[in-house]
Design a protein that fits this description.
The protein is built from 10 helices and 2 strands. By secondary structure, it is mainly alpha-helical. α4 runs antiparallel to α6. Pfam families: Nitrate_red_gam.
Amino acid sequence: MSSLHQFLFGTYPYIASAIFLFGSLVRFDYAQYTWKSDSSQLLKRGQLRWGSNLFHLGILFLFLGHLVGLLTPHWVYEPFLEPAHKQLLAMVSGGIAGTMCMIGLLLLIHRRLTEPRIRANSKTMDFVILFWILLTLSLGLTSIYVSAGHSDGSVMLALSDWAQRIVTFRPGAAAAIAEAPFVFKLHLFCGMTLFLLFPFSRLVHIWSGFGSVAYLVRPYQIVRTRRLGREETQ
């Protein structure tokens, strides 16, 4: 195992995570007026509905699928789901969601590149993020074909072991995927780099989506109105 491999899959995940968390906090604290999605709906609606819906549905499913699939310990699902069957489930569901996400992403990229007003209002980071997601997604879809060559689920278990060692700060994370195919390693690197780029892009508005859940548990807001010279509480 080379020192580069050790750095990329043993140290780099913590660098990307730190920048992701603290970078988002610093941006929210010092640049709140930039904390927005910069929607281009008012500039042109064409392709937006299909592109945005397909992209968001696909990428949300992929994110949750990766989160649950990688971080769920093997002993939790072992009694009723063999690794090979779990891998097949991940390949099928991930392939469907990935294809949806890819179609939506390509529509959004085409729209941003070909519409002059949208392109003029786009920042360099907008294109960096779009094409980086495209690269990461392409590698993920490619890995499905590679997974078909080892249907026993061994690589999936190695990737899960790597992710669980990272989040629990246990040593040996890089060694867990030392023998994994190159396409998986490249996909992991691109995914981690996406988190590193997150605070510097419009993707920060995703935090607002999770934050809106707090409205479900916040206290009722008291509104007072004046009627017939008397205040009443509604």
